Amino acid sequence: MKLLKRFNVKKNERGLLYSEGDFVAILEPGAYRHLDLGNRLSVETFSLNTPQFEHRLAGYLRQSEPELVERYFTRMDLAENEAGLRYEDGVLAEILAPGSRRLYWKGQTEQRLERIDLSQDYRVAPALLQQLQGNLRGRSVIGAEAILVVQVPAYQVGVLKVDGAVIELLPAGPHGFWRYNRQVNVELIDMRTQALEVSGQEILTRDKVSLRLNLAANWRYSDVLMAFSQLSKPLEHLYRELQFGLRAAVGTRSLDELLENKQVIDESVGAYLKERMAGTGIEVSGLGVRDIILPGEMKTLLAQVVEAEKAAQANVIRRREETSATRSLLNTAKVMEDNPTALRLKELETLERVAERIDRISVFGGLDQVLNGLVTLKQA
Questions:
Q1: How many other CB atoms sit within 10 Å of the CB of residue 41?
Q2: 20 to 30 A from 312, CA-CA: which of 143, 243, 294, 369?
Q3: Which structural domains are found in the chain, ordered by start?
Q4: Stated pTM of the model
Q5: In what residue span(s) does the Band domain sit (predicted)?
């Protein structure tokens, strides 16, 4: 039996010496020889490459061995209203949650704790946010999910909500907020004019004709804080109001009224929205009905109506032209009756039309004989 037991602790290690499983001492790097008659001694070693000391003896050492803790460990204890930034050799390595109690081995890396008072503000300081973003690009920071980092693009604002309450608007740029002890979220809002489509609305007219309509509206936020303080979901609210306005405009009018003046729908819905959306922080700059789709059988009936109307109009025009032509002939006859010269010209015109249809003409007795013969035929 070996009475002398030897233990080795490497230069990048620390050791815990036990006697019958009970803590005795902390061993620094080196070779140790101990007389062990009953094989009661043992050593547990820890690599300094993993500086955090997570062990069942951590609580005992804090309470009963404060001098050993001060000598061998860096102590990081946080209150319930504090967050911690742990730096290793000057580089941010971890974000510690409120109430954390940690021990880190001294000797290989320099451990430093920076405390953040969460009771003062939920914002992350700009310098810390810049440092955190720089670290996030090159390496992972443990516990980084504790900070909400938001990049607000140009032409947009961020609606900051803390524990469900709207707090303020965030301008374009980076922003960071602590998530500990509160619920924080940011909703990005585009401040430019946007289009909203209300499609496929099946609505009955006053005379019970089913129509399908598509409406388009241009809108923007005129006051974002007002919109979100009064409406839980502003865009959904605007969509519903467009639906209600469209149904009110169509349901109170007949099909003929709508087809004769499609602009009446736009005017009616616009007036409805002006009243309903006043003071909500949403501005509708323009709207219009894109399509009015009729059922198949109604299209056939309307086509027949249009065809009958056009046929009647054509008949009226034809009768008007016939009356005008008859009146013209009557006037011409009266002129020729009172004017022999006009009658002579008409005879020559008739002769010209006859000559156009005959390839060859033989004249006997001269041209006067032909004209006299035509006159004689006409009088007969």
A1: 17
A2: 294
A3: 121-192 (no CATH), 194-294 (3.30.479.30), 303-368 (no CATH)
A4: 0.64
A5: 147-306
